[in-house]
Amino acid sequence: MCGLSGSGKSTLARSVETILKRRHVKVEILDGDEYRQTLCKGLGFSRHDRSENIRRMAFVARQLSKHGIVAIICAINPYEEVRREVAAHLPDVRTIHIDCSVEILKAPRYQGFISKSFLPEGHPEKNHEPYRY
After folding, report:
1. How confident is the model at residue 111 (pLDDT cuts 50, 70, 90)?
2. What are the C-alpha distances in Å from 111 to residues 61, 71, 73, 116?
3. Do 98 and 8 touch, CB atoms closer than 8 A?
4. 3-state DSSP assignment of residue 12
5. Do the Cβ atoms of 17 and 29 come closer than 8 Å?
6. 47 has pLDDT over 50
7. CA-based angle 66:71:21, to the nearest 5?
8. Residue 115: pLDDT above 60?
């Protein structure tokens, strides 16, 4: 699942996980935010680093699939090129784009989540990097 920060990727993934588990399907969510703190620690937000982040998560997904586990990757993943690359190595991969506009994510109803990415560096409320292409 890919889309803007705060668009609902992880929330939707958890709902899908619940449904699959009820059907006795083994499932694991690979959340981009969590992986950036561990396996992908040290990667920035350049095009190269974002692509490497996805490659690493896809590697984990491929390993899980060898054991019959459905892996759901939740990451911004803005580059079609790396999505195609992942699909070439995981034949059963499906890409779901969560289409949510920046304007909606800036709305107070969503706690202005994306607005925080536009705050200056070092601001105490800034907790995510900007969504950059």
Report:
1. low
2. 31, 29, 24, 9
3. yes
4. helix
5. yes
6. yes
7. 105
8. no
Q: Taking each helix axis as running N to C, give the angle between helix 80-89 and helix 47-65, from 0 to 180 degrees, rounded to the nearest 10.
A: 20
- At 88, give phi and psi (nearest 5°): -65, -30
Higher pLDDT, 4 or 58: 58
97 has which bridge partners? 2
Report yes or no: 89 and 62 within 8 Å, Cβ to Cβ. yes
Q: What share of the chain is helix, strand, coil (3-state, %, to 5)?
A: 45, 10, 45
CA angle 85, 10, 91 (to 5 degrees): 25
Does this model's pTM top 0.90? My answer is no
CA distances to 10, 60, 104, 123 from 22, rounded to whole Å, are 18, 23, 32, 42
Q: Which residues pair with 89 in a beta bridge?
A: none
- Cα torsion for 57, 4, 51, 15, to the nearest 10°? 20
